[in-house]
Design goal:
The complex is a heterotrimer. Chain B folds into three domains: 6-242, 3-Layer(aba) Sandwich (Rossmann fold); 243-333 and 418-503, Rossmann fold, CATH 3.40.50.300; 343-417, no CATH class. Chain B is built from 17 helices and 22 strands. Chain B has helices at 44-51, 74-79, 97-102, 115-128, 144-157, 174-189, 201-207, 230-238, 296-304, 326-331, 341-345, 352-364, 372-385, 402-414, 432-447, 459-465, 489-502, and strands at 6-15, 18-28, 33-37, 59-64, 67-68, 82-85, 108-109, 112-113, 162-166, 193-197, 210-215, 218-224, 260-269, 273-281, 285-290, 311-316, 319-321, 334-337, 420-424, 451-455, 468-473, 476-482. In chain B, strands 6-9-10-3-11-12 form a six-stranded mixed sheet, sandwiched between helices. In chain B, strands 18-19-20-15-21-22 form a six-stranded mixed sheet, with helices on both faces. In chain B, helix 12 (352-364) crosses helix 13 (372-385) and helix 12 packs parallel to helix 14 (402-414). Chain C has helices at residues 2-10, 20-39, 46-55, 57-71, 79-96, 101-125, 130-148, 158-165, 178-196, 198-208, 210-215, 220-246, 257-267, 279-299, 304-326, and strands at residues 153-154, 167-169, 175-177, 248-249. Classes of the chains: A mainly alpha, B alpha/beta, C mainly alpha. The interface between A and B is large, with 44 and 63 residues. The structure holds adenosine-5'-triphosphate and magnesium ion. Residues 15, 18, 20, 38, 40-46, 87, 389-390, 399-404, 429 of chain B line the site of adenosine-5'-triphosphate (ATP). Magnesium ion (MG) is lined by residues 44-45, 87, 166, 401-402 of chain B. Chain A: The chain crosses the membrane at residues 18-35, 56-75, 106-126, 138-159, 171-192, 222-241, 253-272, 279-301, 307-325. Chain A: It is found in: Cell membrane. Chain A: Keywords: Cell membrane, Membrane, Sugar transport, Transmembrane, Transmembrane helix, Transport.
């Protein structure tokens, strides 16, 4: 038996599972070069980095962040539909406080605090009341938008605060601050889940909750933690979005970001049923979605057909990732001595 | 002899990294019971799954009634007259017992499913195997052994010409096995060909006409059972000459009874087990014996806090403790290896290593991850000690053979080094060699001062390693026997019968 | 709360435990309705109750399809877009192309069914996760809507007008629209299919354990394709009813309806992981959402954001009560060992 190559096979599969998302991303980036010749170029102006690639990272930053939080929730076997509402509330709260003359720390602190509370609320509904995650977070998805509009009074609040602008639209050390923020969040998440046993415990709870309980895992704590973390990510993303435009729109900020985030997670190879998760995959998924948006824009696809185009791309990515689909084209038919011209007649079966 | 009803020739099947079957041939004649033997991971279940179309063979040929056949899937196999009980119970936990027996071929009246008839016939069929249960109950609420019997009932009632039973007896006790065998004999007399997998040699010798032996994915040979001694059979399976199969039978060791670890006073739970008084000591192996439904697993679950008790108190050395849930029990040094490895035990999508270190990691807390080196060392040593195959830590548990999965689960709890280890059917589906190793390990752990609770449907095994045997019946503890070396399985069965007379 | 649960559990006519969520939902629905009747004038009339069916006929039909899908453990996000697409096709077919209405409706139902079956095929044959497949379906259907027309198209067709403007007269001067009648018929058919046909039982089996269903020799793959086809059909039918209700087709109709449908199914006691739940529960779920909306419209004083908050609060109150009453003590495996 072939035992020696098994560990390397494992690594091979790990690489493999991200192979197709990476390929798709690269192909999409290259396709953009057709429409914009200097698409891949990165320039330095006044000590700041500029370029389409930087833009993709910058515009994609909130989505990556939300998707990171979503990954943890999905890994526990749940889902969080309320992230869009949290994005709106956090932005609205911060802008409202700034508009009312409070300092930046107060505004940001309040927004983050509120997001944590919203995450906690979701987590408690799921663990304490045992409500199915999709419906537990739907409550906040519906009500949260109302709360955001309540904060903004149904208006779009605009502010003028250059300090606040830094979060989502400013530069630091030559890089957009939002990108740095996302990178830090990613590193922290990776360290927390992979350098400690947290990731293992979460995957275990998502993989088989009953068995995890018998192994001594107190899953409620972990699940609440995942929702709180997801709320936090959404809150920071909300700050980014509102800071980028220096305005808060309770109605439209973060609209449908929950679907994009879930899509990013799934494109990255994490199953919605919970268990194994891949943070790198999620980041890739989010970048694919952002690049798709950019491509639609640069390729000049008319707005009315963009959705059809998105559908096509999503379908292609999924099919490429599906081993069953690839097998259609690559697998040789199993060698069977029993093909039509062999011994005895074929058995007639209605299947 | 008549023509074979089924022939497999030159079957090969590889999975990434493992060649599960290599050029295996196999024949099955009408009216015979054919044993398929081999160690854990030898390829028995894979051969069966190739036969029923779950896996597509890489090479090879299947002939049914002299007709070359490409079997496209379980549904197709069923239509061809092959009916199968797979190793892991594969029924739908959310459906009723009756529906699980009839789904896919429900009797209909005026075009609609006739529920009355389904329930009536299911009751009859189960009664034939001596089971009296509410057929409208959800399957998931039944114990593993009952589920296994239900799967058998379903397969038998399909009236196929080939019946495949992959380790159907792994969690059955004597009575059920006897009833199953009588059903099998009846089918055999009707000319049905039966493929039977079991790790119990006695059962093989009792029921089989011929055996086919697999080793490491290769075919060793096909033998009439009468021409093969037990020692020969084991030697063929393991590839090693084994001189003393009996060596382990004398393992019953001396008791070095230590401090009292746990005292149960009137601990019970309505519908699961009546209040029980029980003392568990360090260094002592306590066996729970009882028939199906006697409450032996339920009692174990109460001790661990997997289910909460309605009545009674549990005391440790320090005084009464509230064992609210598994975590509290683990913190008290209690470990519990559950019977249902698929549902209650393993995380199928994780690797062998992750599954093994899980409980240890949990008790250390998430902030203190085991170092890479420590993990490799621990996991590596248990892979070797329990002969987990394939022997590398990064294999996904779902890809392991049934017996090897069981070993992984066992390893998880052994490495936690608990004060009290509760093992519910720890050797279910494990081959003879590894089983002996595990029994020795348990005995030596007790020798080192660990308290052990050992539950098994196999009375011989309980007798072999326990110092004290708690006999249960009808959800009550009916007797406590000292295993002084003179006890026999018959004694225990007698005690159980008397327990009935008492009540 | 515990007392209510205890009464439910111990009463001699204890219903099957699995029916409890449905009964709890029904009880709470009636409770909510009575509270509405006490608070608002003209609320507690039979017609207001019937209006629940009239105003939500399309959602009931869509929720039927969603129930089938969720029972197998899947999800269908495309329903809202397919409803919109069906409405558009109805409008274009009858009013722009001047085709006979029955023909148009037949075509729409075929398109919806085929669309669902195609998604089901992708999910089954290529093992793409349902969420993502149907999300792509949602994009596609909505995109086709926008490509067909960016503006609302009103329906001017004799058949549609006749069906929309007439209704079934009931005793007591009450009325039920033909759309609602269609929805109720669909409910009856669906209940029959789920309970008394092999297809229905296979749906539950696949939801319980797809692997087991396959090994037991059930046509698991075919069943999955069938449920998505059914969901596609129901969405298309829902789209026709929606077109009847609004007498127009609009590319922005029914945005987010998939969430309403999923919410209705889950409120009705069906578990998202599949295998457990009843169709009647989903209908009750739709009615719950309907009652909440009706109460808010009777109130009429709330600004749009307070309405949203109120929906959230009512939804929370409802679900929390449902959980607290329905929650059984975590008793696992107390049955025979
Ligand atoms: N789906 C799979 N993917 C990868 N490897 C597999 C898969 N299924 C089985 N194997 C491997 O094939 C080998 C044979 O497994 P199989 O289940 O046939 O053993 P078995 O003889 O039935 O053992 P047991 O007595 O433990 O049930 C094992 O090494 C197992 O790890
Ligand atoms: Mg096996």
């Amino acid at each position: 038996m072939n035992r020696a190559d098994a560990p390397s096979r494992h690594l091979g599969i790990l690489k493999h599972s991200l192979f197709w998302p990476v390929t798709v991303l690269i192909v999409m980036l290259l396709a953009n070069v057709i429409f914009t010749r200097d698409f891949l170029a990165i320039r330095i102006e006044q000590g700041h980095l500029y370029g389409s690639l930087i833009d993709i990272l910058l515009f994609g930053a909130p989505l990556i962040l939300v998707a990171l939080g979503m990954t943890m929730v999905i890994a526990t076997g749940g889902v969080d539909l309320s992230v869009g509402a949290t994005v709106a509330i956090s932005g609205a709260l911060a802008c409202d406080l700034i508009a009312k003359g409070h300092g930046l720390p107060v505004a940001i602190g309040a927004a983050i605090g509120a997001s944590l509370l919203l995450g906690l609320w979701n987590g408690l509904l799921v663990t304490r009341l045992g409500i199915q995650p999709i419906i537990a977070t739907l409550i906040l998805m519906v009500a949260g938008r109302g709360i955001a509009q309540l904060i903004t009074g149904g208006q779009i609040i605009t502010i003028n605060n250059q300090g606040y602008k830094l979060i989502g639209g400013g530069y630091w050390l030559g890089l957009p601050f939002a990108i740095i923020l996302v990178a830090v969040a990613l590193v922290v998440t990776v360290v927390l889940t992979r350098r400690t046993a947290l990731g293992l415990l979460i995957e275990s709870v998502g993989g088989n909750a009953q068995a995890s309980r018998l192994a001594g895992i107190r899953s409620s704590g972990l699940i609440v933690l995942a929702y709180v973390f997801c709320g936090l990510c959404a809150g920071v993303a909300g700050l980014m979005i509102s800071s980028n435009t220096l305005s808060a729109d309770g109605n439209n900020a973060g609209l449908w970001i929950e679907l994009d985030a879930i899509l990013a997670v799934v494109l990255g190879g994490t199953a919605l049923t919970g268990g194994r998760f891949s943070l790198a995959g999620t980041v890739l998924g989010a970048l694919i979605i952002q690049t798709l948006d950019t491509t639609i824009y640069t390729a000049g696809i008319p707005p009315r057909t963009t959705l059809v185009f998105s559908a096509a791309v999503v379908t292609i990515v999924c099919l490429l990732q599906s081993p069953a689909f690839r097998a259609r084209f690559t697998r040789k038919r199993p060698e069977r001595p029993a093909d039509p011209v062999s011994t005895g007649p074929k058995q007639e079966v209605t299947a | 002899m008549a023509a074979p009803v089924l022939e497999m020739e030159g079957i090969s099947k590889g999975f990434p990294g493992v060649q599960a079957l290599q050029d295996v041939s196999f024949r099955l004649f009408p009216g015979e019971v054919h044993g398929l033997m081999g160690e854990n991971g030898a390829g028995k279940s894979t051969l069966i799954k190739v036969l029923t179309g779950v896996h597509t063979a890489d090479a090879g040929l299947v002939t049914i009634d002299d007709v070359d056949t490409l079997i496209r899937g379980p549904l197709h196999a069923q239509r061809l007259g092959i009916s199968t009980v797979y190793q892991e119970v594969n029924l739908c936990p959310n459906l009723s017992v009756a529906e699980n027996i009839f789904i896919g071929r429900e009797p209909r009246r005026f075009g609609r499913i006739d529920w009355k008839q389904i329930n009536r016939r299911a009751t009859e069929l189960l009664a034939r195997l001596g089971l009296d249960l509410d057929v409208t109950a959800q399957l998931g609420s039944c114990s593993l052994a009952v589920q296994q019997l239900i799967a058998i009932v379903r397969a038998v009632d399909l009236k196929a010409k080939v019946l495949i039973l992959d380790e159907p007896t792994s969690s059955l006790d004597r009575g059920e096995v006897a009833r199953l065998f009588s059903v099998m004999r009846r089918l055999k007399a009707d000319g049905v060909a039966i493929l039977f997998v079991s790790h119990f040699l006695e059962q093989i010798y009792e029921i089989c006409d011929r055996v086919t032996v697999l080793r490491n994915g290769g075919l060793v040979g096909e033998y009439p059972i009468g021409e093969l001694s037990r020692l020969d059979l084991v030697a063929k399976m393991t590839g090693q000459e084994l001189t003393a199969l009996e060596e382990l039978d004398e393992a019953s060791p001396d008791v070095v009874k230590g401090e009292r670890l746990l005292a149960l006073e009137g601990v019970g739970r309505t519908g699961a087990i009546d209040p029980v008084d029980l003392d568990l000591h360090a260094g002592e192996v306590v066996g729970f014996a009882g028939l199906l439904g006697s409450g032996r697993s339920e009692l174990a679950r109460l001790i661990f806090g997997a289910d909460s008790a309605d009545t009674g108190v549990i005391r440790t050395g320090g005084g009464p403790v509230a064992l609210k849930g598994p975590r509290a029990a683990i913190d008290q040094g209690i470990a519990f290896c559950p019977e249902d490895r698929k549902g209650d035990g393993l995380i199928m999508d994780l690797t062998v290593e992750e599954n093994i270190i899980l409980a240890l990691q949990v008790s250390r807390g998430w902030l203190k991850p085991l170092s890479q080196r420590k993990r490799e060392e621990l996991v590596g040593s248990y892979i070797k000690a329990l002969r987990i195959h394939p022997p590398h830590p990064y294999a996904l548990v779902k890809n392991l053979s049934g017996g090897n999965q069981q070993k992984v689960l066992l390893a998880r709890w052994l490495i936690t080094r608990p004060k009290l280890l509760i093992l519910d059917e720890p050797t279910r589906g494990i081959d003879i060699g590894a089983k002996t190793e595990i029994q020795k390990l348990v005995v030596s752990l007790a020798g080192d001062g660990m308290g052990v609770v050992f539950i098994s449907a196999e009375l011989e095994e309980v007798l072999r390693i326990s110092h004290k045997i708690e006999v249960l019946r009808d959800r009550r503890l009916v007797a406590e026997l000292d295993n002084d070396g003179t006890l026999t399985p018959e004694h225990i069965l007698q005690t159980i019968a008397n327990g009935a007379a008492d009540s | 709360m515990t007392t209510a649960a205890d009464v439910l559990r111990r009463s001699p006519v204890t219903p099957n435990r699995r029916h409890i969520p449905v009964f709890v939902t029904l009880g709470l629905l009636l409770l909510t309705f009575s509270i509405g009747s006490v608070r608002y004038e003209n609320f507690g009339t039979p017609q207001v109750f019937l209006d629940l069916f009239i105003d939500n006929a399309f959602l009931i039909v869509v929720a039927i399809g969603m129930t089938f899908v969720i029972l197998t453990g899947g999800i269908d996000l495309s329903v809202g877009s397919v409803v919109a697409l069906s409405g558009m096709l109805c409008a274009i077919g009858t009013s722009k192309l001047q085709l006979p209405a029955p023909l148009v409706i037949l075509f729409v139902l075929l398109v919806g069914t085929g669309f669902g079956a195609a998604m089901g095929y992708m999910i089954t044959a290529f093992q793409v996760q349902p969420f993502i497949t149907t999300l792509a379906g949602m994009f596609l259907a909505r995109g086709v809507c926008l490509t067909l027309s960016e503006n609302q198209i009103s329906i001017e067709n004799g058949f549609f007008d006749a069906v929309a403007l007439n209704s079934l007269r009931l005793p007591g001067g009450n009325r039920l629209s033909w759309g609602a009648v269609t929805a109720l018929i669909a409910v009856a058919v669906a209940i029959y299919v789920l309970q008394w046909t092999r297809l229905g039982r296979n749906v539950y089996a696949v939801g319980g354990s797809e692997q087991s269903a396959m090994l037991m020799g059930l046509p698991a793959g075919r069943t999955k394709i069938q449920v998505y086809a059914i969901s596609g059909f129901c969405s298309a039918l829902g789209g026709v009813l929606f077109a009847l209700y609004t007498l127009s087709g609009d590319p922005t109709h029914a945005v987010g309806m998939e969430l309403d449908a999923i919410a209705a199914v889950v409120i009705g006691g069906t578990v998202l992981t599949g295998g457990s739940g009843y169709l009647i529960g989903s209908v009750l779920g739709v009615l719950v959402l309907g009652v909440i909306k009706t109460i808010l419209s009777f109130d009429g004083t709330l600004s749009s954001w307070w309405t949203r908050i109120a929906i959230g609060v009512l939804l929370f109150g409802f679900i929390a009560l449902q959980r607290l009453i329905g929650a059984r003590r975590k008793s696992r495996r107390s049955a025979p060992s």
